[in-house]
Amino acid sequence: MNVRRSAAALAAIGVLAAAAPATAAGPSPSPKVAVPSGLFGKGDPTYDGVWRQSFALLAQHTLGERPSASAINWLVGQQCDDGFFPAFRADPSKPCLGKDGAQADIDATAAAIQALQALGEHDGEVHRAVGWLKGMQNKDGGFGFSVEQPSDTNHTADVIGALSVAGENVTALRSEGKTPLEALSELSIPCSADGGGAFAYQPDKKGKLAANADATAAGVLGALGKGFVIEPGKARDKAPACTASGKPTPAQLADNASAYLARTLAKTGHLTSSLAGAKDQPDYGNTADAVVALAATGSTAQAKKSYAWLEKNAGNWAEQSGPAAYAELIFAAHAIGADPHDFGGTDLVRALDATGPATQTAKATHSEAKQGKHDSGTKVWWIVGVGLVAGIGIGFLLSGRRKRQQP
Known about the structure:
With about 400 residues, this protein is mostly helical.
């Protein structure tokens, strides 16, 4: 798991590979469950099947590719009757929830909504998923890691992005009078405080907010009402600065958070992953998220510098982490207008495609090539055949002419 999952969730499921150095990571352990046909990646899908599938399909669509029908159908088949998507549903024929059923996952549902909305022709599935998400809103207006969990920046931002992409008016979504954007505002650190401008993941037990780079990158997109994919925008003339305000607007929240990210990234070009008892290491996934966040606010100068760092250092990490990692890097490339086919010597597009079923575009090209070869051969024989027939016909005409000319 290397993408926008909370540290608490990662610790709970014991998935720490993304925090380890790319050069030190060994081969992925054998999956605990069989990897279904149509699913991207070969690793255990128990905790991230829907998430990585959604990212992979969304990235392919962003690149202008037509994903495999089997890959799309696999994702659609993961949806439960209540409308939500679980992290992974090993047996879609079994009902969800209950003791042994697949459990609701807000992250997975938000990601699936964005993928299916982008792909089109899945209005019913998107509508049901959106309805379920809206019903999971907490009293403070935000969303948590799972049902009835306290609100946090990451999941609130992911839900805002998903609902916005689906055409929902997020400002009209209220729980006891509070909106998701108001919940985000409560998790933003004032400019005058330590880590000013950043978002906290959640308040600590004493209610104090501590800067969290992962949450800050997510918070920028949430404040702007953006999904995982943003279009390259116009670069701003000046770098963002944290501006104090009694009640900052969503745009100000995004600018303040971008200012924090820019300051943090300026030191080394990348974000750092800190785990208790482990040495601080580069955080490739969150650095890619930060590139997207900075680009979303027009802070392209630092975004491009950090993307250049990723080009030099993130290739091995992506190869070992799989489809969601490739997708993250593709989103970052797209956000700054870079070519994902040339990522420090790696073709991110080809690498992503290789982790899942062949795209419909690739199949069509292969089919057309075969048909072209067949047509070429047919054309040759058709020409030969026409020549023979024409020759025979001319022979008959000449023979008849000779006969008529005879005395």
